[in-house]
Records
---
Amino acid sequence: MAKRPLILVTNDDGITAPGLRTLISVMNQLGEVVVVAPDSPQSAMGHAITINSTLYIEEMTIDDGPQKEYACSGTPADCVKIAVNEILDRRPDICVSGINHGSNSSINVIYSGTMSAALEAGIESIPAIGFSLLDYSWGANFEHCTTFVKTIAENVLENGLNDGVVLNVNIPNKTASDIKGIKVCRQARANWKEKFDKRQNPMGRDYYWLTGEFINMDQGEDTDEWALEQDYVSIVPVQFDLTAHHAIKTLNTWDFNA
Amino acid sequence: MAKRPLILVTNDDGITAPGLRTLISVMNQLGEVVVVAPDSPQSAMGHAITINSTLYIEEMTIDDGPQKEYACSGTPADCVKIAVNEILDRRPDICVSGINHGSNSSINVIYSGTMSAALEAGIESIPAIGFSLLDYSWGANFEHCTTFVKTIAENVLENGLNDGVVLNVNIPNKTASDIKGIKVCRQARANWKEKFDKRQNPMGRDYYWLTGEFINMDQGEDTDEWALEQDYVSIVPVQFDLTAHHAIKTLNTWDFNA
């Protein structure tokens, strides 16, 4: 490549998160890196954007390195929008988000701030990847992720992605030698069986904590859940055209003039 | 139907919103209504859920009527989760969300709190519909929406919906006589061309407001944008399996062992 690619890096765990730091270190090997990440954790923000309040950005140095870094007061989707429109002087060649502390496989993609940033880039026709490690802890070990992150990002830089397609990559919490490889998958049909933990505050008012158990209802051996259980890195191509095309025919048989 | 259906009603504009009030009045004609809606506006919340703070629910009476009403301190998705798990004594037969003050057509579905509530119900295998009116104002006139809302909800109660499919209904801001009918559509390929309005706060620090212009890049005559421009009510069946199945084959040709 004649010119080094411009790489936009973001996440939802906030600009100081170790997963983001790992992602920056890999991307510095591949191109010119600009980081625009939330100034505080934004997990489970879904695809929120900030329309009724103000946004601040602040250039800062968290780690040594060639990258430029900006903290933004908004959501992950805001970070991408403001990066593309106000910070970067040209369109990025790729946007990478993560590495998330915790899984964004199967239905978790819907709630994921990490993936919302990647989807936002995809909506802007920028090739984009969200990376997640199956370990929720702040002190998670990201070392074994670097090879996979690099390989997948290199492939996207080289091959591009179809317009409207974004990659959702999840990495097992195993050592590099335990991981069997990379599998392209579909999103498993799974959900959370919620349980609300009901408590009483000191003033006697009831309140709830949301907890839950993950249920994989999908027996397929082509899903991300299956691949991750078998110690593969999973890649699901995801799209933001939510149309359930298979349902259109049925709906057209309905009688709306009753 | 032997037993009146149980109808869960929610929205993202908050429990006092006129659009919700209209939706409740229509649903009271169709079944037993329980309202669980945010205690404050939650627009553009995407599919956010509350995992790091507490949730409160409060039974209240906003309007006279047979419905039961609860305000919840969380997001639209939280409202559905807590309704199903803590408030309702049986599974609802349908969940309706809205009527949103403003469009959720095409790419707006991604940012929509209204649709995130409907999708959350869909994830729980409850037939669900999100309704939106193409008028952002609080004082919007919802009168002409009632016939369409009722017809579509009756159809879903009678026919059900495929598992994994949720309806996204948008209604033109026209009089009933100007609306030509209902069209089943696909989501148009469109996006927002953002513009950030940069200002300086009284302390001299720069801040930004997110504004933007809506761009429909899709010339198809089978899209929701086309239908709405032609004065039809649009119904897009949407799904929360985001897999871009058409991209899997290409990705399987990539070399991940380079």
---
Amino acid sequence: MPASHRTSGSTARDDYLEQILHLIEEKGYARPIDISKKLNISQASVTNMLQRLDAEGLVKHEKYRGTILTDKGLNIAKAIIDRHETLTRFLQLFEIDTNTIYRDVEGMEHHISRSTLEALRAVTDHLQHHPETLRQVKERLPE
Amino acid sequence: MPASHRTSGSTARDDYLEQILHLIEEKGYARPIDISKKLNISQASVTNMLQRLDAEGLVKHEKYRGTILTDKGLNIAKAIIDRHETLTRFLQLFEIDTNTIYRDVEGMEHHISRSTLEALRAVTDHLQHHPETLRQVKERLPE
Ligand SMILES: [Mn+2]
Ligand SMILES: [Mn+2]
């Protein structure tokens, strides 16, 4: 499959862009120390990855301010967050506990193609609009 | 979440048990050389992992024959294959190409909890029994 049909560049890159966008939305910028805390990764590794993302044209470092996303980086980060939210929305239909949902989504999200994401989005949207169908689906669950 | 609620021990362990069961179904036993070819892993690594699986009581090595699964190993291998087939069956509803399905399933399968697996199974079973609903869901797909 062409790389462009995957929704994930790499797990690490996805997780960085996701957290950088969350931090920017929270504070306007992302400092290496905050990224390091969010991802539970050493500041040295964060600095390293930020240089790679900078070389790929995805982030810019502004002195005295922190890291911001380029337009290209922002588009990728938004797609990553949309994917996370779509998977979460699907699992929330089934009253799965919040921690399990978070862990499953964080694991699965890096491994799904655009086609799989769109299939899950279509199913989720349909079930959200058809509560009776959702009820019938849930009758098939064990216990 | 308790480890028992995950469907995956570890990615490597899952992949070994899955391929060992496939080989046993094909030939009656699994030889290290065949496992090594299926998983594209060196024979030395295979020998190593087989010793770990043996220590965990999941496989037994029989001289002049090869590796067979214990009852415990067989149950786990069957659950791994059931999970692979359920995910595949879900994606096949959406006419996603075979390679993409295989790649997504191989990636996702190690990251889903029992609850997520059961939700996907319920959705898949329902859609297989309700073609009109499936048609409506597919109308939501892009292009
Ligand atoms: Mn995520
Ligand atoms: Mn598999």
---
Amino acid sequence: MTHKIAILGASGYTGAELVRLIAEHPNMTIAALAAERKAGQSMAQVFPHLRHMNLPDLCKISEIDFSQIDLCFCALPHKTSQEVIRNLPKTLKIVDLSADFRLRDADEYEKWYGNPHTALDDQQEAVYGLTEFYRDDIRAARLVAGTGCNAATGQYVLRPLISAGVIDLDDIILDMKCAVSGAGRSLKENLLHAELSEGYSAYAVGGTHRHLGEFDQEFSALAGRTVHVQFTPHLIPANRGILATAYVKGDPTSVYETLLNAYENEPFIQMLPFGETPSTHHVRGSNFCHIGVVADRIERRAIVVGALDNLTKGSSGQALQNANLMLGEIETQGLMMAPLFP
Amino acid sequence: MTHKIAILGASGYTGAELVRLIAEHPNMTIAALAAERKAGQSMAQVFPHLRHMNLPDLCKISEIDFSQIDLCFCALPHKTSQEVIRNLPKTLKIVDLSADFRLRDADEYEKWYGNPHTALDDQQEAVYGLTEFYRDDIRAARLVAGTGCNAATGQYVLRPLISAGVIDLDDIILDMKCAVSGAGRSLKENLLHAELSEGYSAYAVGGTHRHLGEFDQEFSALAGRTVHVQFTPHLIPANRGILATAYVKGDPTSVYETLLNAYENEPFIQMLPFGETPSTHHVRGSNFCHIGVVADRIERRAIVVGALDNLTKGSSGQALQNANLMLGEIETQGLMMAPLFP
Amino acid sequence: MTHKIAILGASGYTGAELVRLIAEHPNMTIAALAAERKAGQSMAQVFPHLRHMNLPDLCKISEIDFSQIDLCFCALPHKTSQEVIRNLPKTLKIVDLSADFRLRDADEYEKWYGNPHTALDDQQEAVYGLTEFYRDDIRAARLVAGTGCNAATGQYVLRPLISAGVIDLDDIILDMKCAVSGAGRSLKENLLHAELSEGYSAYAVGGTHRHLGEFDQEFSALAGRTVHVQFTPHLIPANRGILATAYVKGDPTSVYETLLNAYENEPFIQMLPFGETPSTHHVRGSNFCHIGVVADRIERRAIVVGALDNLTKGSSGQALQNANLMLGEIETQGLMMAPLFP
Amino acid sequence: MTHKIAILGASGYTGAELVRLIAEHPNMTIAALAAERKAGQSMAQVFPHLRHMNLPDLCKISEIDFSQIDLCFCALPHKTSQEVIRNLPKTLKIVDLSADFRLRDADEYEKWYGNPHTALDDQQEAVYGLTEFYRDDIRAARLVAGTGCNAATGQYVLRPLISAGVIDLDDIILDMKCAVSGAGRSLKENLLHAELSEGYSAYAVGGTHRHLGEFDQEFSALAGRTVHVQFTPHLIPANRGILATAYVKGDPTSVYETLLNAYENEPFIQMLPFGETPSTHHVRGSNFCHIGVVADRIERRAIVVGALDNLTKGSSGQALQNANLMLGEIETQGLMMAPLFP
């Protein structure tokens, strides 16, 4: 059986990445692609790399007959996303890639995103989409909220450690190095090749990055107490990739073994041998996340480094993984492609 | 039925690319991976991006039981390749990715490569592996010689034009822009990031690049007379891609229509609308070749631009496409993945 | 004596490059920096790399007292530039970096730029700013029109050959590879890091690039007859640099010697040994232009390759070189810095 | 008066950078350039970007008449450096760029570098070359040991804080992002463009990087007790730059003011406004170091970010700054050039 898929917000990078992935999926077919401002254009005009595919032209959301759709990916900006999803049929399966349904507390949402939430019913219903940790809920969900790409990376390196209580909860530092596609296809001066190439810098320093809302919610829930990490992202001159370097206090061997056990049966989370650390180049274009642990020369301090592709495992790959669960497909279907190297 | 595959020279970029592609192929399984100097290592050590795959460790060629192999990819350096292939079972299907069996004339081989050919029987038997133009021969072949990556690109933009006689044969210029992986995983100063990034230059200028041997052989055979093109490659700070800008003399509309007709039913060759030209970014990681034609402001001059990924369509993807034919598989099997963008 | 300098359009890349260069000039001081939309900001806010300099804040053009200015660099967009310059004091020395005064024929200007020229008196007075070929005129000029960066590169490799009559005038091909800063600090999708990095393509193919107006004007004047070259620019994933590969028909030795003689005493034009070709990486950040000549394997065909930095020798460095002449300074003053490598 | 300069190890990146800088120095002239394996070649062959300069050919060290040299830069690999310097005239002023004379304790040297020190007298005499903190000693020194480029960056962000006692000495994390030229012109697989571009990773994780020897020595001396920081370098796909993100515990305002006071009169150390952080792109090719401080959302935690160019302020620029002091020149002479942006 072939599932009919709609993608809203198909003219952005995560939309294009969804198309790329679904193209390899044996049991999904793309029935509708919406992009309000580019409605009427062919996908090949907007993304020439998809020229070979037989795809519907871009349309407006209002033109889609959702009764013919089995699952809808929503790759719209936050705020727009809730406004659209609020009005979609309540029986439609939805994987949202925006930030709108990640935070369960409406006040926290408003604090981090600056606007009040206007789809509170959907918000309450939404399941947090970090597949490896919410698998059963996702399987049963109608609306799944894809995580932030930084939020996913940070949680993969830290969640099992917080759950197991093997690290000091008051002293966690996440230094993250993010490739530029995470900022989307947006026309900003600092995203220009001439500005970014050959240079790199921190941004949203000091605890102001919105993905902290997710870290706070998830880590505090795991620990049963407030956990606030320090998180500093850096913009790196590369197109895809997130590298999270986590500095934690605890026994390095316990840290390693905790992660090893947690991810033993996970198809997409690959633990490196103790003492090795990953590269973003080795996960690019794939749904894999590589994690390594090293003991610092200072006792009871460990460095945990995780790498994933922000557009795949950090976003559209995660979304497809969740959609597989929601549609009763094998979870890894269409997602086992090897990374592109070099 | 699953075909058992061996890859000789698995520690280079084309070897890794073969593994990446075969991983998606439903009817092939990798039975042996050879790399003389790295024998004994796991593939994950040599190429960490393949860590998630269940692959045999690297071995020596002499350790492979070729009676258990259905098809062997040979991704060794030229000269080594002929020495190895000479001693393989004469019943073994082989796709060679080196330069050793591309030229049918042993003198031409020695002229361009500097060493005499020592596997003349195999050389006579070998079929030139430009799939779209040697499809029937390849289907029946035991030994297929993969083309040079530049040679493939140049032929895709020019072969139909030379066959149809719509361009001046004495005035063809191929200005090519090549990404760095075409030079292989070799430790040379000019391939260092610090030397290549942020700079670009021509190389092998003046008609000294070895792929000219292929152009001369193929174009002259098509035309029934000697055809010598001018070919200047340039090294560009990117990892994958070849962009060929061909300057030809002839009616631009005829040029376009000739190419359009020639590639009408080709799954991997995509003609752009007249007046548009392709980008390497839109074919990266895929087996597609995009071709565009533009009329110059000067009458009867056309510019034909072709783009492909040197490691995929220019090398390992082509090899797999040929292997599919040799094994009776669907030609496009395992090769329809969309490009990686961005 | 210190010359007081104003820069109009100081918030763009050529404006910033002028500041960088003038900072090293012993006899110039920056008295005014104008940028209409950013007036009131400090230069450090707009270009943090200039933070260490003691510079005036950005102002509006109308706020500048031009009676206190010895020379004004005008780095505004074309069309705006003529409107501004038309209203500047007629005694003010001006180096314009826009396209507005490059073409001597008003019809040609309108043909290539789409708008009628509205400062015809200034246009008639303007001297074309390719220093090495208009040195005496520039020394005496009040208004100098900086050349296009591609136009400069193409002329350096071709002018002496056209003057000397050593090449076929009807068969000249200029294949150019341009770095992204040539497009300015403009927010366009194809200039984003995510779109440009790892990909490259041709643009303005077929004789539509505006710098052809300059080639036509200059080459035809040199030859005493109409000369139309073919010119195809390509956008390369690098920040600075232009590489021009010129395909010409003529005796390669004569071609080389003609260039060697022409540039024998030029401080900024460096001829490589016969058979060698340059890299943009070796001129980056400098006012040098490297030129090489290679004989093709086909008789009487030569390839001439030139490299320069579009922002320096192609634009702001050229402008300063001209300003030195106009102000009676040593021509090379402030311009002999070595390229930045790596 | 013009000082005659020799550079030993002129075929590496720091050697070339010294030549680039000295070219702009009004009172220095390059009298000898040594590179053992490339002796006999011209500098233009080894570094074509220096082609325009009138430089002596590369020679062997043994061919230099050191009685004619006023100051010698030694840009050799560690271990080689001490063997060479041991045999130079004891009256010759030397700035060493290797690691050989950075550590005052011979056992520490052997611990970090694996070989015993064989020039102990010179080692005792050497002055540590972090100019801003050893200015008077350097002025009087005969032999100055240039710092590690990471070591310099880390010390600029931390020294004043450790001296002033405003941060917790037991909990300092230095997460560093390093461009590739810091690894030198060495042929290693991970330095290839194809391996590094589009990917990034940590290296020397866990307290194994040799520059920790310098941190331990300097920070412990400042504090009067043992101070061990955590230091994790990351390799970034860029050619020049080091970005140090320091996580410290202390009052952010005190942290900022301490740094502001410390660097108030330093020409090369630029403090950004509180709350802003620097980019490597804004110091590239210059001798400047930009430093910013941000308060974390967690109380009493500050993030200090420093950026410099590893080849200039981190190495050859520092060396020239020290040479200026040793020769009685103005400290900033030849070093005030603006960064290259973009």
---
Amino acid sequence: MKKIPKIAVFGGGSWATAIVKMLCENLHQVGWYMRNQNSIDYIKENAHNPNYLSSAEFDVSKLYLSSDINELVRYADVLIFAIPSAFVKAELDKITEDFSSKIVFSAIKGIVPETGLIVGEHFNKMHQIPFENIGVITGPCHAEEVAMERLSYLTIACTDVKKARLLSKCLASNYIKTKTSDDIIGSEYAAMLKNIYAIAAGIAHGLGYGDNFQSVLMSNSIREMKRFIKKIHKMKRNINNSAYLGDLLVTGYSVFSRNRMFGNMIGKGYTVKSAQMEMSMIAEGYYATKSAYLLNEKNKAKTPIIDAVYAVLYEHKNPKKIFKKLTELLD
Amino acid sequence: MKKIPKIAVFGGGSWATAIVKMLCENLHQVGWYMRNQNSIDYIKENAHNPNYLSSAEFDVSKLYLSSDINELVRYADVLIFAIPSAFVKAELDKITEDFSSKIVFSAIKGIVPETGLIVGEHFNKMHQIPFENIGVITGPCHAEEVAMERLSYLTIACTDVKKARLLSKCLASNYIKTKTSDDIIGSEYAAMLKNIYAIAAGIAHGLGYGDNFQSVLMSNSIREMKRFIKKIHKMKRNINNSAYLGDLLVTGYSVFSRNRMFGNMIGKGYTVKSAQMEMSMIAEGYYATKSAYLLNEKNKAKTPIIDAVYAVLYEHKNPKKIFKKLTELLD
């Protein structure tokens, strides 16, 4: 691999925009795929994304923008995907280039709904990327604070730590600190599960539970997350590291989290459908809940919180009753 | 011990008031000491504490109120102390009755400044209470939410678990869930340390750090707390239980926490003196910082956050510089 790799980011949302911003601090050129040509034209003219993180200004001369996904797959050595999990399969299906020899990092928090796989597994199974070429970028990190250049910490996970280290360097700056990890599976599942716990926090808030209960819920969530992940991939990991606990907290305690907001509406009495329509997007945690629940039917970790959220979202059980029962199972 | 013990609460603040309220759900009579006779007269007439948690209404016929501490020490089998740690020694010094055979629970979060001891040790060393008769009541629990009868979880710790169980029963109600623990030392130190981390969270907020950093700070705080407590009393404990992690979160994420508020003012540029004057009270964490720092000079756990708060509060170092250095030590 060359010393400075060619990197392209795939996605036009706030997290993709934040990652492009971070890379621009270090690289002379950053590839950026977004499917909407109008947004590309806008960025070229106005130096910021019209729809997301519009306060982040770009040096347009550094951006290699294209709405042709194959053009940027060809261009880059390292592909960073930051597309919402619900659309990732449709986007990946557009790729006709063979990219099985490229390095692929996922900044996607969730599960590919069509295959029920976490994104790393999806790349491996569906696109023949070997696991040592697959990595994950996780927070705790609200994209909005990256735009404001507020100090944030990222964890870059890859079983081949050299590749994690390479990307770490490309992302680090005076407002981004990075660390590497070899726990790609744990990091991916943590990033996915935290969205379910954020929905739970939102439901609890919507039902009128207070801060005392929220702290108990988060304390139980991290223990549940540990049990869940351990069943999938047992290894020595400190679940209180920023990539797991930090990521849970930044989402669970954020009033801006879409997942928490979605849960909050459910707690306040919206149906799942009407909450989704009201938000005009589907919270990642909605899909994650189903996948996690089904996966755990085999693994049988004790997961009362995931079970409660599943019962509310997919079995249309009464949130008030389900959460009343849940409170008996927490401690 | 009789089946229903006589219980008295010592203290007139919000946490004492909340505990009296909880006990009144289960007992026919609750002793309540507060030094201010005017407050007692007010409560008798108006059925609520004039100064704290005034929305909590009492059935006055259940309250055995007195401003004579010895009267209530004589009365009760179980003494619950909920006096701010800064005043606890002065109050205890008033006791002329021998209470070495009584059961003593501490709901005090901190260290007795004059002796540098956690409250349990202070009772043991200064008042000859055997350790098996000493217990601790910990949250996560804002008193304000008890007044509103919002579901809260308490942990009651005592080396003699039977005594913990007894008090658990007296405190539990439809809005209070209790669990018992035998980790009295860990619980006390956790309750004390969390105030230091809340000050750190406040300083960071005051300096302009955002939510991404706060989550990293909390993730590092719980790991630091674990290391600190392990040096003092090594035993099998899950630091992610509500009594430790939950208590840290409810304080660290609360905008109402006096410790966080105090830190926030320091971060915004107030001197320690002026912040204390402005708040017209001294945050518990101020004393805790010194005690924890000095104690750890011997124990040598890695405690960058406590060290940073100590440098700011006691060595009057520049918070901006100290926290900039701290960010290098977190991950």
